[in-house]
Design brief:
The protein is mainly α. It contains 20 helices and no strands.
């Protein structure tokens, strides 16, 4: 009996280690992919410029929605059903499930491909960016490939083998990095317009999915013996398996699609509002003085207004109505092109700020991927105190990472944009990044809160919260961007209100539904205090060095900080800020030994800090 219990415990430990090992592999893979994405997007913006960046983002946002709808929940469903059938030794059931899933993925992928390729102009029109159409067409084949990839990844994960998924994701990201950047650079060097270069960059995404799919097919053939193991089980009818797949996949797909759908709606409304206010109210031009050249737009508005009957208001609605005619007037087409050029420039700078804003959230991927199995494991052992400790440590570690990153972006928004993006306007993109820096804190904390709720079995609550936050974001951005004195600067405000609301609701829900929830004030107060003091140090160091390194060019009246001087001042400010923050964290005892125990080499770090 004792031997049986010992074997049982060993089996449980082995299963737990396998589970945590798989989670760790996925977390590392996600982190590597995000880092590759950073090295892809930053130089890409410097290659294709403001307008090309807007075209790229608009095309990719359309792709992301269709991709999520066709692949978000299905891999999870396949993984679950394959895992269950495999555990029961039902290899024929495994094979039929996989084949039906693959057929379903192909069907959804083919449908998405047809929409993206043959209706690309219509989709680009929805985003108020007709120049995004080439990029949408370039991405169309990727939807089919990613659908097949999702089937193979679900099959692999169903066999508790996470390595093929992580490797295929890294292959996909590397191809996007190398091929996408090379094509974009070659096209720009050849004199191609920004929208064509953006389509070239996006082609790297498509090639990456093809190469990753080839790898997954080979992994399926060699790692899993092609599913040829003999079995005498009778598989369930195809209709029953498909119903099971859809039953699991549809709720996950709906929840996963919300972020992409909100992003597309928000991007479309922001660009539409920018064009409307630029056309209908010239007072809105004042906030972009010295940043945009409005001469082409002014000439186009004057020429178009001259074609209108006396007393007719020059509105975007009227222009859109004329453009929907089969043969629009030449003046109307020229005006729409000028409006799109202005909004693409503004939105391209905003997209560059979003690229940096998304980096801290990318780093949260490893934490969120680790929280769910850690908390779930504690709850499975009926260790509620241990689950509460892990929950508190996850919130504290996230706060210790998110607060300084958010404050740093807020304080150094302009210098960072000037350092990283030579093709963007730091006077325009810098304030956008500073505002987004505040939202960074909220979104990072929200992501971990969502993982905590999911680990406790509350899967639908985070989705409902995101729907509310997304609605607030759309409402805020639509109204603020449409104000002449606010314009594009209102777009980041929606992020602050959206994720601020989501975080507040998540924290309230955690306090109500999770037993022994952690106390919030001790978790947040010390990281906040250390981050504010760190931000003051960064601001002071940058201000001092920028004055010392500035020079007065011959014939100029004011001192000018060169690009090299800005780089030195910015990097020095970041270095000093990092040292100040680490000293404050140690002095304030903002992190505990229990927190560090969840991290690699945590014991050594604790001894180093004297905890």
């Amino acid at each position: 009996m004792a031997r049986s219990d010992m074997d049982s415990r060993r089996g449980a430990r082995k299963k737990q280690n396998t589970f945590f090992g798989g989670a760790a592999i996925l977390a590392v893979g996600i982190l590597v992919v995000k880092l590759i994405g950073m090295f892809y997007k930053i130089p890409l913006v410097n290659i294709i410029g403001e307008q090309g960046n807007a075209d790229f983002n608009n095309a990719y946002n359309i792709y992301a929605v269709l991709l999520t709808i066709s692949t978000a929940g299905l891999p999870v469903a396949v993984s679950k059903l394959v895992s269950e059938a495999s555990a029961l030794g039902r290899q024929n059931q495994v094979r039929r499930t996989f084949r039906l899933a693959l057929a379903l993925f192909l069907g959804l992928g083919a449908g998405s491909f047809l929409v993206m390729y043959f209706r690309s102009d219509w989709l680009a029109g929805l985003m108020h960016d007709s120049m995004a159409a080439p990029g949408i067409r370039a991405l169309a084949p990727a939807v089919i490939c990613v659908g097949c990839l999702a089937a193979f990844r679900g099959y692999s994960q169903g066999h508790s083998d996470m390595t093929p998924t992580s490797v295929s994701q890294i292959i996909e990201a590397l191809c996007k990095l190398v091929i996408g950047l090379a094509l974009a650079y070659w096209l720009i060097s050849a004199g191609s317009p920004p929208e064509v270069a953006a389509a070239g960059a996006i082609t790297g995404v498509t090639v990456g999915t093809i190469v990753a799919l080839v790898y997954m097919i080979l992994a399926y053939l060699f790692r899993f013996d092609g599913g040829k193991a003999l079995s005498r089980d009778t598989p369930d009818p195809a209709g029953s398996i498909l119903r099971d797949i859809l039953r699991i996949a549809i709720p996950i797909t709906l929840s996963s699609s919300m972020v992409g759908i909100v992003t597309v709606i928000d991007s479309s409304l922001v660009q539409g509002q920018l064009q409307r206010v630029l056309l209908e109210n010239r007072d809105s031009w004042g906030i972009y003085a010295g940043m945009l050249d409005f001469s082409a737009l002014e000439e186009a508005i004057t020429a178009w207004a001259a074609t209108l009957p006396d007393g007719t208001a020059a509105t975007l609605a009227l222009l859109t109505q004329q453009m929907e005619a089969k043969q629009p007037a030449e003046e109307a087409a020229a005006l729409l092109a000028a409006l799109e050029a202005a909004s693409r420039t503004l939105f391209g700078n905003y997209g560059g700020a979003l690229t940096i804003y998304n980096l801290p959230t990318s780093l949260m991927a490893a934490i969120t991927a680790s929280v769910i199995p850690a908390v779930s494991g504690a709850l499975a052992r009926r260790d509620r105190i241990g689950g509460a400790k892990i929950t508190g440590s996850a919130l504290r570690i996230t706060a210790l990472l998110a607060f300084p990153m958010g404050v740093g972006l807020f304080v150094l928004g302009r210098p960072i944009m000037r350092l990283l993006f030579t093709k963007l306007n730091p006077e325009l993109a810098g304030p956008l990044l500073s505002t987004l820096g505040l939202a960074t804190v909220f979104v990072c904390m929200m992501l971990v809160c969502n993982s905590i709720l999911q680990a406790h079995g509350f899967v639908n609550l985070p989705v409902m919260v995101m729907v509310m936050g997304g609605g607030l974001k759309i409402f805020t951005n639509y109204n603020l961007v449409g104000r002449p004195g606010v314009g594009i600067y209102g777009a980041p405000a929606g992020n602050i209100l959206c994720f601020g609301l989501c975080l507040a609701l998540d924290l309230v829900i955690i306090s109500r539904v999770i037993p022994k929830r952690p106390r919030y004030l001790p978790i947040f107060l010390k990281p906040l205090a250390a981050s504010v003091l760190m931000g003051g140090a960064a601001w002071g160091v940058y201000g001092l060095l920028s004055k010392l390194l500035s020079a007065v060019p011959e014939g100029a009246e004011e001192a000018v900080l060169s690009g090299r001087g800005n780089a030195v001042a910015t990097l020095a400010a970041i270095g000093v800020a990092a040292v100040v923050y680490l000293v404050l964290v140690a002095a304030l005892r903002a992190i505990s030994r229990d927190d560090l125990a969840l991290m690699p080499k945590g014991d050594k770090i604790a001894r180093l800090l004297g905890l």
